[in-house]
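User: Batch of two.

Assistant: Item 1 of 2:
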Amino acid sequence: MAFFDNKRVLPSTKPISKKIVVSVGSGNARQSHQGLKDAREIIQDARDEAFRIKKAAEDEAVKIRQESLEIEKRIAQKEESLEAKIDQLTRLENQIESSRSQVIQKEGEIAKLRTELVDKLSKVSSYTREEAKKLILANLEEELKVEIAKRIKEAEEKIKAESKAIARDIIVNAMIAGATDWVAEYTVTTVKLESEEIKGRIIGKEGRNIRAFELATGVDVELDSDVAGEVRLSSFDPVRREIARLALEWLVKDARIQPTRIEQLVQKAKNQVASDMTEAGRRAAAEVGLYNLPQEALDTLGRLKFRYSYGQNQLIAAVETAKIARKIAEEVGTNAQICATGGLFHDIGKTEMEKEGTHVQLGIELAKKWNFPQKVIDCVAQHHEDEPFSHIESIIVHIADAVSGARPGARHEAVEDYIKRLSDIENIATSYAGVEKAYAIQAGREIRVIVQPEVIDDSGIVKLSHDIKQKLEDELTYPGQITVTVIRETRAVDIAK
């Protein structure tokens, strides 16, 4: 670090004198004039040098002053940090002192209790076993008399407060075994042809018609069907399949099958399907007594008309769930409007097939987008128990959904898939050590597990049933729920001769 040196000697700024001899004559006059000029230049150079030295000294002084200020600032910051640490240490010392005082106080109380216990033991030692037992029980009964009365009073008040809610839960749980008396429809997207000759016209010259149709609709057309006179339309999007079905039926009737006509009829089919979905959503809401819903919600609800799960039409299932939920809500005296809305829109996330996430997560997003009440959003979020139930309305929607999906005839499943599902359930159960046999019964809604009694004890079967239940939930997809029953049986056999 540089400091200002007061002893630094600056060059003299006094004018430099020089003797000039003036001689008579023209030559001497010129020499005198030149000497005067040189003297002025020397004086000017001296002044410039003095100014430069002065400027350098001033700059160095400013720099030293700035460095001094920065040093003072750092010192002040360190002082503040030290003061904060001193305050913190002071607080810690106070806390330690307070804790020390509390420890000393507790030690005094413990010593007092020890003395009292010693005195009591000295008195009891003179009693017989029975006398000491009676004395202890008498003292205990006297001490607990007030506590027992208090507990009884609290239990009575709690029972009174919760009795109504418990009664509702009992009724709701009893209704889970109910069923409705009508069956949801199940359809397959196919188009019937009057003759095999029409297939050639659908294909067109060099396949241009069928390519134009697939490009406009986004579906795959399968002409090589096992059934004569039938065309299958394949796509993961049910709305596209419906548009393709309508357009193909119109093309077959029109008989003018060419790319331009295909585009016209496909656009007409799109408009028709959009109109049908809007009307279907409006009718579904009106059927369960819901009005003044957002138009976007009704349009999205109508898309469920072309959505199926295990062969169950999702719009019909939504209406069915809403009706069951409304009926249960009316029976138990809770908000029927919330239950009906939650039941109608509980699977609305299934319409968002192109987005990532479960249908529950997507349904929550849509419900929030339409500004549905929080209780309705909770019904959507909790109908598969992805979240804990927050109110009785969400429980009712969960039960109504289970009733709609679990009743006989509601869902369709191929025989091969059904057999594989039962086998998977049994294989999971038998994968645990100590399991002797496992049987899937009631169409896969219950699994009976028989264990080896010498390997698994009574407490072990509780853990085994829980482990099997957890593995079924993690590894399998199935409708409804599966009851896991673990049986442990010990037999002793002897023969009398």
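Item 2 of 2:
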Amino acid sequence: MSADPVLSSKSILDRLSLTGKNALVTGGNKGIGRAIAHAYAQAGANVAIIGRNENDSKAVSEEIASLYKGIKVINFTCDVTVENEVNATIDAVVKEFGSLEIACNNAGIAEWVDAQDMTFASWKKMISNNLDSAFLCAQAQAKYMIRQGYGKIVFTASLSGKVSNYPQHQAHYNSAKAGVISLARCLATEWAPYGVRVNTLSPGFTITPLLDDLKKTEIGQKYYPEWISRIPMKVMGEVTDMQGAAVYLSSEASDYATGMDLVIDGGYLAW
């Protein structure tokens, strides 16, 4: 008679723990990435902060090290759109930690521009920063995860990868994020036999430095009330609202979840 999994499994809190795991977060020096880096450290993981701004990355690393004793925190400067830099950075993370169990590929950019006025250069920049970077990072991370037979890759996608948000015009951003969701599904099925789980976390409207800057513009002030009106909870999310989902997708508790898009949007898609 097989064991009863309810009685024989580790407790759910133990399965949500990341103690003893090594994690990295791209774009981990601000916004949602910073919040996820903190969450990983709170859950017990060592954390590598990867970003383009060295000073910001160092500041977040020092912040985490001061708050969570016993956690190893490192930081690297990397342009995640450049293949050689990505490969070298992931190699360096593994060299420092000894292994890599968790990767949150969060780095990305956003822009509002009418499609008819969008330059092809703007299109390519958006795809490169949000979709190409996701592929390059995951490919470099999977090299180690497949070898060890275990790993969790989490992409930060977006509500905008599932719907065309109104009234902003961002065809290139929406397309890139939809691509990230599709990429994750493809990698999830391809790498499942090797013990590597791949999922996406899709935030809805979330208060980040990027959104704060937009709210100061004429367009942001005009449309902010409309954005709020379309959210059933009538409030934008905080970056901390993404922490629980990120820890779940990176922990043993989600070992049977792969190819999934977890949306945290205050009910936006339910309306």
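The two ends are 46 Å apart (CA to CA).
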